[in-house]
Amino acid sequence: MSESIILGIESSCDDTSAAIICGNKILSNIAANQQIHNEYGGVVPELASRAHQQNIIPVVEKAFSKANIQQNEISAIGFTRGPGLLGSLLVGTSFAKSLAMSLDVPLIEVNHLQAHILAHFIDDANPTPPSFPFLCLTVSGGHTMIVLVKDYFEMEIIGKTIDDAAGEAFDKIGKIFDLDYPAGPIVDKLAKEGNPGAFKFNKPKMEGYDYSFSGIKTSVLYFIQKEVKKNPDFIKENLNDLCASVQKSIIEILMDKLEKASAELNVKDVAIAGGVSANSGLRKAMEENRGKLGWNIFIPKFEYTTDNAAMIAMVAKLKYERAEFTDIRSTATAKYDL
């Protein structure tokens, strides 16, 4: 193969993932999930890093096997430097450095948030990729932001959450409803059977394009406490409607700012990225704006929404073409600005 072949490694939170990309085409994208955190209602950093140590070699081996590529055929190794859980990042960073040294190939550090956005340029992520400049609502358990993407590596955060991320709000409200962790996908599933207009929750009044999600969490908590005093079975009897109403409120908060940014900046190419971009309600709201506001919308395939190494490999490929390499002095970092 004449095109570059790159191994991507992702270990920022609780998924160990490895992918191989040739050009812009993903040849393999393997992930090992960590179910142990479900018992604790959230990711436990120490357990996460230990699980990464157990998973990383089998995951990388499987990525090579599925891609039908030998280790000596790769051109470079890309890895998530940050942001994320430091212990988890250290496992992927250390492994990438060691393998790059043993194969004598360049090492490429990748910003995890940048990777979520640039996943749109993977061959099969969209029928066509977005055009610059475009807006990308990057929304996950740890981050919620609107990014103005001017070029592959020229990005400006124009709005972000001042407290909880949207995915975090889904999980915390799910905990109030006594749902398993992670609650976001469960809320989405139950919302399909409920009435989104059944209950109303407070929405924040924020200036500019910034977000706040702590208010809706508090609003839901007080409402539930009041109703459960009157009827102890209130949550059980109204769970689908509660999930539908919460989901509607969170998506309206997200979309209001995105619509405002699109109108004021006159940008019609609008994308979503990150774990919450898998939410069916958010995808539906984006589709509605295609006709209503004349947006060109870009919604990635499900496998490229959650944390995955394909998006890391995509960024590494773009950096490889620019000869933007790092060396073994590169260190993992929990905070890593876009």
Describe the structure.
Helices cover 42% and strands 18% of the residues. By secondary structure, it is of the alpha/beta class. Helix 6 runs antiparallel to helix 7. The model has no long low-confidence stretch (mean pLDDT 93). The protein has nine helices and ten strands. Strand 9, helix 8 and strand 10 form a beta-alpha-beta unit. A five-stranded mixed β-sheet has the order 3-2-1-4-5, sandwiched between helices.
Q: What is the total tally of β strands?
A: 10
Structural class of the helices, strands and pairings? alpha/beta
The low-confidence runs, each spanning 5 or more residues with pLDDT under 50, are none
> Helicity range of the residues?
40-55%
From the structure above, extract its key features:
globular; 338 residues; alpha/beta; 18% strand; 42% helix
List the helices and strands and how they pair.
Layout: E1 5-10, E2 16-22, E3 25-32, H1 45-67, E4 76-82, H2 86-103, E5 107-111, H3 112-118, E6 134-139, E7 144-151, E8 154-160, H4 166-176, H5 184-191, H6 214-230, H7 234-265, E9 269-273, H8 280-292, E10 296-298, H9 309-321
Helix pairs in contact: 1-2, 3-9, 4-6, 4-7, 5-7, 6-7, 7-8
